[in-house]
Design brief:
By secondary structure, the protein is an alpha/beta fold. Helices cover 47% and strands 14% of the residues.
Amino acid sequence: MSTQSEAALEKNLIAQLSSCGYEQVTIPDLDALEANFKEQLEKHNNVSLTNEEFKRILTHLDGGGTFKKALKLRDKFELHRDNETIYIEFLDCEEWCKNRFQVTNQVTNHAGRYENRYDVTILINGLPLVQVELKRRGKEIKEAFNQICRYKKDSYEKSLFAYIQIFVVSNGVNTRYFANNKSMSSKQIFAWTDEENTSVNNLSDFADSFLERCHLSKMIAKYIVLHQQDRCLMVLRPYQFYAAEAISESVDAAAQNGYIWHTTGSGKTLTSFKTAQLLAEKGTVDKVVFVVDRKDLDYQTTKEFNHFSDGSVSGSENTSSLVKHLGSEQKVIVTTIQKLTRAISAERHSKVLQCVKEKRVVFIFDECHRSQFGDMHTAITKFFTNHQCYGFTGTPIFAENASSGGLVDKDGHRQNTTKSLFGECLHKYIIQDAISDENVLGFCVEYIKTFKQNESADDSDAEVEAIDTEEIFQAPERISLVTDHILSNHSRKTFDRNFTAIFAVKSIPVLIKYYEEFKKHKHDLTIATIFSFGANEDPEEYAGEEKTQSSRDMLESFMQDYNTQFGTNFSTTSGKENSFNSYYIDVARRVKEKQIDILIVVNMFLTGFDSKTLNTLYVDKNLKHHGLIQAFSRTNRLYNEQKKHGNVVCYRPIKKAVDTAVTLFSDKSPLEEVLMKSYEEHLEEFNRLIEMVKGAYPTLESIDDLQSEEDKKNFIEVFRALLRIKTRLASFVDFTFDDVKITEQEVEDYTSKYRDLYDEVVNRAEAEKVSVLDDIDFEIELLRKDNINVDYILSLLNELDPDSKSFEKDKAFIIQKINDSHELKSKKELVEAFVAKHSNLEGDVETNFAKFLEKKKQKELKALAKRENLHEDKLRAFIDEYEFSGRKDESILDEAFTESLGLLKRRTKKKGILTMLNALIDKFKM
């Protein structure tokens, strides 16, 4: 039996859609498309259009890119006539089932360089809003994705096809959908699922569910978010759709409360924004209040919501502004639970709020596993008499992980679980669902023993607590040992500092010890810290611990280190601009931008902080249950091919706590779906692949002898698999080539052949204009990791050709590499300045760069001497001595002063000059 052809697949899909209420039409070309659009537009708007009026509509629709066209689609066009103005609607977003649905195929477009014919087009009110590209069974759907990218580049944008909102790709057995955007990635295509998160892969089943007319129209009308900050379209994933629908239906039915269990990192912000937006559009809802439990999340959530839709929500800087917003026409408000409690508790505010007290208010509680089991929640729900409450959480509170506290209901039952407080779970998307869908990464957990224990003891929490004494876990020797271990392995864990890390410790006094220990050790990592102080301190954290200075004093000292490092002026006593909250925001930004290598914390940043560039968590505290999963989940955001999993390095024996938490929050018990394989398991797999490679290709010459396309493809695929495992292995502390059946040099040799073969295939594809790459998912970034340093930049400059058409693009690439480099951050302006003028220089790049640096250095040295009233020759002698011997001879500086100063003034000024000289030396040290 032959396989089903692409034409047969297309024919069957059209027949299925026709049987489900789509009108099948024949549209051979763009002229026919426009004629059909005019006819459908007239029917939808119940109006007759003259040719001139229709041309005006087409002119209106023609302007702008994909994002602007998406806005026009959802807006109405004012058509002015002699005696009236009528409003032409392109899409009914309120009663989406009343739109008009058609299906056609093989529309030919000659607008681009090439003739393109599109597989199956779904028209809504005559506009092509959904495009389906098919490949026969046995082909990869990535081929269909690549085809869409080619069509988009060549011809979509030159016609009404620019109004496509959703693309669908399928080979019959695998089907995916994604939004239309200027830049598209094959990693951002989604499978549709049922409510239980079971994928709907078969094209026929997908057509029955996703392409059903009312559902498809609703997805376009309600569940595509127009992200105004990024000017892109975001179509919701199925679990986001089901969550928003479940809450919406519950509100419509005036049913009980409920909660959404979506694992950390699965896009909760987008889900909650869309939910709040949909609820606000309901005439039966007066206010939607999104409640967070931390001030920084108030700022962050308001910012992100308004990125989705500018001005869509009001944040609340203080309690007074919250009260003002509650009494205004603003329907969506973001606030903290603390501000909301103060608003309804203070008499001067509660009087103002009487006007909203009985209105219908829907509360959406963010991270409802925290802060909801106390008096504040009770006060809020008691004050607002016509409310409903919904919660979002990645880690619900169950009986197994509930504390002994919590609210007590009217019947005396303790409400210490998420269900007892919010009601039933309305939708669930748990951690292994997200890992399976490749929405988040799994975790690779390593357990490091830092002292000898009783060999018969296991690692249960009880036994850990039993030996948790100051003499052991907080001994200076152990603190130093752990610090050494982190410094020795941080580069390996973060791929030469291409990622960042958080170090979670037990308490503030322990944090202080670690911070001071890091300062004692020799390294070039940027270490920062942040913790709460004063009234927010937990007295239990200091039980039995010597505390010579307040935590606030110590934080103030650490913040001064930060200020010196980054040229900031933060303080715990500063006003709004440089306050502790501003410090928090700045720290978060610098962690995300890889300016901070390791952030030491106790509790802060272990929940609610998302950074794609963070891949490692060091742990020296006893985590468990939801706290453990939340902390681990800081590491598992998707980023690039290099980031295969989140790294967790535990310096406490908490394996049982890890297994228990993963089992609890995966709602099943497949640890292997969440926790990555051990070092030993990866090692076994790597050695198996080595045997396979060496068996099939025993010598490098045997690779040269490969003739057929299939043989070359086989080598590429098997060696790619080997490189993947090597990337994972390299992140383990224990990794050494002594453990594997191949030398490091052999890997490099085989890698060279891999690269050469890759280049050969690419060049042939270009020459033959065929898609031979469609079958191969190359991961060339796995081949090597360049250290982005001065030598690397100079090597790029050597290849820079001012006469090349790609000169500006190549120069921009070099500038970007400089911006991305941790090593070059102090030299950024220098290197950028040289790059900018490099094309006008003649001669050797290295020589020119050396001359450029020397000239700049002497100029800055001269300026420093003049500014500080010093002998320039002595400053130069100080630097010359350092460059010759590596020694900073401070006695030379004593001779640099030209004025007579008192001992204290002289010492202070000398210290400042030394700081400036150190910065200058670091800047010009290459």
